[in-house]
Amino acid sequence: xxxxxxxxxxxxxxxxxxxxxxxxxxxxxxxxxxxxxxxxxxxxxxxxxxxxxxxxxxxxxxxxxxxxxxxxxxxxxxxxxxxxxxxxxxxxxxxxxxxxxxxxxxxxxxxxxxxxxxxxxxxxxxxxxxxxxxxxxxxxxxxxxxxxxxxxxxxxxxxxxxxxxxxxxxxxxxxxxxxxxxxxxxxxxxxxxxxxxxxxxxxxxxxxxxxxxxxxxxxxxxxxxxxxxxxxxxxxxxxxxxxxxxxxxxxxxxxxxxxxxxxxxxxxxxxxxxxxxxxxxxxxxxxxxxxxxxxxxxxxxxxxxxxxxxxxxxxxxxxxxxxxxxxxxxxxxxxxxxxxxxxxxxxxxxxxxxxxxxxxxxxxxxxxxxxx
Length: 372
Ligand SMILES: C[S@@+](CC[C@H](N)C(=O)[O-])C[C@H]1O[C@@H](n2cnc3c(N)ncnc32)[C@H](O)[C@@H]1O
Prior knowledge:
By secondary structure, the chain is α/β, with parallel strands linked by helices.
């Protein structure tokens, strides 16, 4: 996540030096708030699920002091994070260790924010259904943190996926795999030989071009906040990059879905669909095609089937073995996989340079990176 944020800030912000973020737990990084950075990340950051602006923090252990803390902080607050007549919702996550229930915490935060705003002559109303401002409360190392959700909805739902196969990757996880594989679209091809509905290729293309995350009319809540109104509208940050991408997918109906999804995502010109079974694609021919398009090296990246839908364990092992034999012929390329089947490593052969535990939804899996 931090690597992606740095890349975006280097390209998208002038006169700005991004600092090392603080890590909070396994899944969050925290930067000092900056309005331009917040806007850039909520529009472009592909490996995160949400972008929050932390407004207040309280170490109160009970509800009354929590209310007093937030009221006091709200009265001194001159930042324009809310406006007269705005509708607000409050949700709390991971607050089980606090001395009161989730609903009580939500009520207290809501009351304190509304009371503080009223004293500054700003009317806030509660509207859980259609809020302008979504407030999130979380507990981290004994502190309740009250944040404004700049995304408003899960950022992984980009708007390009109208239909998909049985096991599509979540879009932010697909983007993370591309980042972990360190794909450099200026010098490297990328191929997903088991592409399904093509999520990895779409995320690779959008990362390469620095495309905004939101499409098909979807927008982050930040677009409604007056404080972001003066900032430039989002556009592709590396729009002239022409990634060299290849796909194959054995299921013809899924291949058709993939083609339609590429069109919706606007990347159909970047991807060459090579055909069905990857075993019928000669590595030499693929490498030659990549060279013709100006790149000498590449990355094979995929999440192979794990087993349930593949029939016998032998056929899954055979697929992994064939994938290994195929990949090892791409001399000088890297090979990146997300797999939740412990048989993979042995059947694929060789030793991964990186083996990192990584969940795919409910499945415990591994990210493997090989070099040939
Ligand atoms: C886990 S899914 C990939 C999902 C994909 N990443 C997505 O986001 O939609 C694995 C895919 O491999 C395909 N597949 C299985 N064997 C194949 C083969 N020999 N050649 C090409 N595709 C194959 C399956 O049809 C399935 O769509």
